[in-house]
Write a structure and sequence with these properties.
- It is built from no helices and nine strands.
- By secondary structure, it is mainly beta.
- It has one domain: Immunoglobulin-like, CATH 2.60.40.150.
- Strands 2, 3, 4, 6 and 7 form a five-stranded antiparallel sheet that branches. It has a four-stranded antiparallel sheet with strand order 5-1-9-8, with no helix packed on it.
- The protein is globular, with a radius of gyration of 14 Å.
- The model has no long low-confidence stretch (mean pLDDT 95).
- It binds calcium ion (2 copies).
- One calcium ion (CA) binds next to loops.
Amino acid sequence: MATLTQINFTQIYCVSTSESGKDEVYFKIIIDNLVAGQFPTDGSYHSLGSEGTWTFDVTYAYTEFLTISLWDDDGTSGDDPLGSFTFTAGQAYSSPVTVSNPNGAEYKISFALKSC
Ligand SMILES: [Ca+2]
Ligand SMILES: [Ca+2]
């Protein structure tokens, strides 16, 4: 039986945004190739400018792969991907991990991993 891994996400730090001013940041969680959730869960976002910090406390469990995918809300014009990172169960990662996109976005995601 596969080992269940828990990951606790605690913070997103903005090094640089994808657009001038602020990005409207939210993230999607893909677990074992299925979309498992979005945060904030009410479909909103958190505005982050350069050097901005967003703290929260959310935990997900997975057995093989978990991908966190950051997005910039752009309302009706379609949201932009800010970068994503995939965690493989059983591997070690040091927090934070960095995601980026070709438009200059760079974000650091803080987390803690726990094997059950
Ligand atoms: Ca935006
Ligand atoms: Ca945008």
